[in-house]
Automatic annotation (TrEMBL), chain A:
Gene3D superfamilies: 3.10.20.740, 3.30.70.20, 3.40.50.740. It comes from the Bacteria. It is found in: Membrane. GO terms for biological process: ATP synthesis coupled electron transport. Belongs to the complex I 75 kDa subunit family. This is 2Fe-2S iron-sulfur cluster binding domain-containing protein. It comes from Rariglobus hedericola. One of its GO terms (cellular component) is membrane. GO terms for molecular function: 2 iron, 2 sulfur cluster binding; 4 iron, 4 sulfur cluster binding; metal ion binding; NADH dehydrogenase (ubiquinone) activity; NADH dehydrogenase activity. Residues 247-303 form the 4Fe-4S Mo/W bis-MGD-type domain.
From TrEMBL, chain B:
Residues 352-397 form the NADH-ubiquinone oxidoreductase 51kDa subunit iron-sulphur binding domain. Keywords: 4Fe-4S, Iron, Iron-sulfur, Metal-binding. InterPro entries: NADH-UbQ_OxRdtase_51kDa_CS, Nuo51_FMN-bd, Nuo51_FMN-bd_sf, Nuop51_4Fe4S-bd, Nuop51_4Fe4S-bd_sf, Soluble_ligand-bd. It holds the Pfam family Complex1_51K. It comes from Rariglobus hedericola. This is NADH-quinone oxidoreductase subunit NuoF.
Length: 562, 452
């Protein structure tokens, strides 16, 4: 584990509580550290400050000192240093802490300011909360309750703005609900790098729209929905599908690439309705690609593999094949398997005396949160020892061994061997034992098919491009007729003569004992934001990934003269 | 006591018969002589003259020009820009347009001198979008000046170069706010920036140190560099030096623009002696002394307190007519001198309707960036509009006041004050009219024109 550097601290006073925070911390963040909520709409910890909603107004003061001598001026009433309070409220989001800063978040001036801003925000806002899709997670709703006056004096005609505007393929805008905080504009311009959104018209008639001839169609467009504090920007896919308070939230990891984006899976009664990003300041901040959110649809897709046969019976069939092919077996593991599954895969391969391979899955990175390595767990395979080199293209080695007759049986774990580079002729030469989630050419040709579960139907860990081990939790029950990967692999390994635990709690001590990089670790002790491992043993490997958010490739080693 | 005489310095040639806006006429009248004199001096000497002069900005806030120049970040290594704020859009104010239309070279000379003093190589004249003729005149004047080596490379052979560009706005009042102006100049929506950190003197145009000065202010600078800061400081009154241009509009017999030593003329002298007093048979009811955003003054009310005269604190007890027309006196009685636009209303004016007009303007001009101004200005407008169109309620005056109180001090820029001060002052000082306006709907004729 690598310890983060200690920050430069300053002492500030928030509502009478002293706290030491890193210098330059935003007042809203500093208040959060003492459990004080400073309400806001336009402020976002990962976006530029614009201070336009005016909801985070606070009272600010600095300790009084004599201008000439710099000697503190004491307050006779309290015996402490006198505080010079600024007569006007200041925005918290536009204020960074400095030594001695004093903040009041509950003074009469602040209360009056917030009530005024809240009243203004509501006067042109539709008051149809019961039928709004943002109900249950709306900041306007929450802060109107917490900071508003509880009644309205507005009797005029409300402004009416467009509804159901399709801004892009995945985002629908109900502009009548917009509070003009501009978070979406700043995100699109500053984070996603595509300046497509803007306001037209002026004053209270300002309307959010796309620039002429542009659409909100970049692969991060759904982040604008996440950060919209009200129900203006909605996901076309999720819109009016489910009330959020009915949904269970489960922490997970995106498997789209080795970036290892932290996510939350929202589900109810075994059905997943949406995926949103989960904040990890070291990995994905608060963002997530759109393409990573649609992965949940695979759970319910029509081509899921399922079987009416018991796992033991399937394993018995595989064991029979193992017996007849002894010494001529290969295992194709998956970069999409979890660390635990890869560990057991290694056990299985060892028991079979089989060479283990991994499918290479390299594409183009987007410099943000999709890395060039589209396997989420290549580093897990290295750390567990399933592989010792990076996977080669098109399973070249295995391909040669099949042609030469050296390999007669292949255990394929959730990888379509045809798509991975084998030919149909080669596939016909071997007996395939396939463990996977969805039907494909390999599962069709396999002699034994063991249906397994998706990442959403199990728990485990992945190691991302940073060599950070991160945990994902089971979100929904497994599909009926599918088997847990770990259980299936462990049962196969036992059948091959090498029993291994199949439950995370009992397996992890074994992993910790046998995998040096994971020593002292237990599944339940891995924090939600993951742990950085020591990547020194693999520093020389030519990883595919280029720079993305929070990741820089290691500098190439100096040339060695042989 | 009769009014003092006008002292036309900036407006010396405005409306002068035979005076034309071309450079030949300007040169015949001593034009660009101050520039020649100034580029022969050290820049810091010129800044010092401006500081000594006590010149306060003529755009509205009255901030001392020399102090403003002193705040410019000269150590950043970035270029310093100067922007001439010619976005004259405050209702009631119409002085800058006459300078630009009739005496544009005065502005150009003042601009170049100010650029020289501050080591500025590029200046922009940001002119209001609705002044296309003014823009054309300025472009022509700059071309004339460039032809004679007063603008452009190697000015007057000194080695100093400065370019001036004219940039037309798109017709938004908010572009008169300095950071909104800068945003517009950069090609963005004119959304004022938050301060801190975006103080123009540090992070202005293209994130470089920037000076934003009013048209009249720069003309005053030219005069200061001519006669010297000390001589300039003798004009007017202590703390309010130089001349002040008043644009008087509304119900007086002689509306127009007048230039007086600052603080030497009272409101009563200006309106009665200079402007001929109220129209026949009428009496003055109210006056807005510094452009429509300033708080209204009600004739008949009295202002009492202590004020500084020399080294002494002296009691004052003034009616509207007694108030000296300077920044500090008007601030003392609860209003402001602003840009010098004096709007006069006599007893024919219904104050509810006058406020409705003002509120309509400000809600239209709100840029929409921050909540209190965006929603508050429109809300005030809607209340006012409903009132004057026949559906007033007795409590509407109090509601207007309360809404207005929720705006100032909580917005990103001073527009919040600009749009709320009229409502605050009108509803307090003319409370009777607002409270009684609910009776008006009973008497409105059916064919009455819908107001605002």
């Amino acid at each position: 584990m690598i310890q983060p550097a200690k920050p430069d601290l300053v002492t500030v006073n928030i509502d009478g509580k002293e706290i030491a925070v890193p210098k330059g911390t935003n007042v809203i963040e500093a208040a959060r550290l003492v459990n004080v909520d400073v309400p806001h709409y336009c402020y976002h910890p990962k976006l530029a400050v614009v201070g336009n909603c005016r909801m985070c107004l606070i009272e600010m003061g600095m300790p009084a000192v004599d201008p000439a001598t710099k000697v503190p001026i004491m307050d006779p009433a309290t015996g402490k240093q006198k505080i010079n309070w600024i007569p006007r409220p200041q925005i918290g989001c536009g204020t960074n802490v400095s030594p001695g800063l004093h903040v009041k978040t509950t003074s009469p001036m602040v209360k009056d300011a917030r009530e005024g801003v809240m009243e203004f925000l509501l006067i042109n806002h539709p008051l149809d909360c019961p039928i709004c899709d943002q109900a249950g997670e709306c900041k306007l709703q929450e802060q109107a309750t917490g900071y508003g006056r509880g009644y309205s004096r507005f009797i005029e005609q409300k402004n009416v703005k467009p509804k159901r505007t399709q801004l892009g393929p995945r985002v629908t805008l109900d502009d009548e609900r917009c509070v003009l905080c501009s978070r979406c504009i700043r995100f699109s311009r500053d984070v996603a790098g595509q300046d497509v959104l803007g306001f037209v018209d002026r004053g209270s008639y300002s309307t959010l729209t796309c620039h002429p001839d542009k659409k909100l169609d970049h692969n991060y467009s759904l982040n604008t929905v996440d950060i919209c504090p009200v129900g203006a920007l909605t996901s076309t896919d999720f819109r009016f599908k489910m009330r959020v308070w009915f949904l269970k939230q489960t922490n997970s990891i995106c498997t789209e690439s080795s970036a290892g984006v932290n996510s939350v899976v929202w589900s109810r009664e075994g059905v997943i309705y949406r995926i949103t990003p989960r904040r990890n300041d070291e990995v994905n901040e608060t963002w997530m690609p759109d393409s990573g959110r649609v992965l949940y649809k695979q759970v319910q897709s029509a081509d899921r593999l399922k079987s009416g046969t018991a796992l033991d019976a399937l394993v018995a069939q595989a064991a029979a094949i193992f017996k007849t092919s002894a010494g001529a077996i290969s295992v194709v593991g998956s970069g999409r398997s979890s660390v635990e599954e890869q560990f057991v895969t290694k056990k299985l391969a060892a028991a079979l005396g089989a060479q283990a391979h991994l499918v290479k899955r390299v594409g183009e990175g987007d410099k943000l949160l999709i890395s060039a390595d589209r396997n989420p767990n290549t580093r897990g395979a290295l750390v567990t020892g399933l592989i010792s080199q990076l996977p080669c293209a098109e399973l070249k080695q295995l391909s040669g061994e099949i042609d030469s007759g050296k390999v007669k049986t292949v255990v394929a774990i959730n990888e379509d061997l045809l798509a991975a580079g084998l030919t149909a002729a080669q596939l016909a030469k071997v007996s395939v034992i396939y463990l996977g989630t969805h039907a494909n050419a390999t599962s069709a040709a396999a002699k034994v098919v063991i249906p397994t579960v998706t990442v959403f139907e199990k728990a485990g860990t992945f190691i991302n491009q940073q060599f950070r081990i991160q945990k994902f939790i089971q979100a929904v029950p497994p599909l009926s007729g599918a088997h847990n990967d770990l259980t299936a692999l462990a049962t196969l390994s036992a059948a091959a003569g090498s029993p291994v635990a199949s439950e995370l709690g009992t397996l992890w001590p074994v992993i910790a004992a046998e995998v040096p990089a994971l020593g002292t670790m237990l599944y339940k002790n891995i924090p939600e934001t993951g742990l950085l491992l020591d990547s020194t043993p693999w520093a020389g490997l030519p990883f595919a990934e280029g720079e993305t958010l929070h990741f820089k490739p290691a500098a190439p080693a100096a040339a060695v003269t042989a | 006591m009769s009014a003092p005489a006008q002292q036309r310095i900036i407006f010396q040639h405005i409306d002068e018969p035979g005076y034309t806006n071309d450079i030949e006429c300007y040169l015949r009248n001593g034009g660009y002589e101050v520039l020649k004199k100034s580029v022969g001096r050290k820049p810091e000497e010129l800044i010092d003259e401006v500081k000594k002069s006590g010149l306060r900005g003529r755009g509205g806030a009255g901030f001392p020009c020399g102090v403003k120049w002193g705040l410019v970040d000269r150590k950043s290594g970035k270029p310093i820009y100067l922007i001439v704020n010619a976005d004259e859009s405050e209702p009631g104010t119409f002085k800058d347009r006459y300078i630009m239309h009739q005496d544009p070279h005065q502005l150009i000379e003042g601009t170049i001198i100010s650029c020289f003093a501050n080591n500025v190589k590029q200046a922009y004249i940001y002119i209001r979008g609705e002044m296309p003729e003014g823009a054309r005149i300025l472009e022509k004047a700059i071309a004339e000046a460039r032809a004679k080596n007063f603008v452009g490379p190697n000015i007057l052979g000194t080695g100093y170069s400065c370019e001036i560009y004219v940039h037309r706005g798109a017709g938004a009042y908010i572009c008169g706010e300095e950071t909104g102006l800068i945003e517009s100049l950069e090609g963005k929506r004119a959304n004022p920036r938050i301060k801190p950190p975006y103080f123009p003197a540090v992070l202005g145009l293209y994130q470089c140190p920037t000076i934003v000065n009013n048209v009249e202010t720069l003309c005053q600078v030219k005069y200061i560099c001519d006669v010297g800061g000390e001589a300039y400081a003798k004009i007017g009154t202590p703390g309010n030096t130089g001349t002040r241009i008043f644009c008087v509009s509304g119900h007086v017999q002689r509306p127009g623009y007048y230039e007086f030593p600052a603080g030497t003329i009272t409101m009563g002298q200006l309106l009665n002696d200079v402007c001929g007093g109220p129209l026949p048979g009428r009496t003055f009811k109210a006056v807005i002394p510094g452009g429509s955003s300033a708080k209204v003054l009600k004739f008949g009310e009295r202002y009492k307190g202590k004020r500084k005269v020399g080294a002494d604190m002296v009691d004052y007890d003034w009616g509207v007519e007694d108030v000296p027309m300077d920044f500090d006196s008007l601030a003392m009685i609860g209003s402001m001198g602003g840009s010098g636009g004096v709007i006069v209303m006599d007893d024919t004016v219904n104050m509810v309707e006058a406020l409705a007009n003002i509120n309509a303007f400000y809600s239209h001009e709100s840029c929409g960036q921050c909540t209190p101004c965006r929603e508050g200005s429109l809300w005030m407008k809607k209340i006012s509009s409903r009132m004057v169109n026949g559906d007033a309620r007795p409590q509407d005056g109090a509601l207007l006041k309360s809404v207005a109180d929720q705006i100032p001090g909580r917005t990103i820029c001073a527009f919040g004050e600009a749009c709320s001060w009229p409502t605050q002052s009108f509803t307090i000082k003319f409370k009777d009219e607002f409270d009684a306006y609910s009776e008006v709907k009973k008497t409105l004729p059916a064919d009455r024109t819908v107001l605002v």
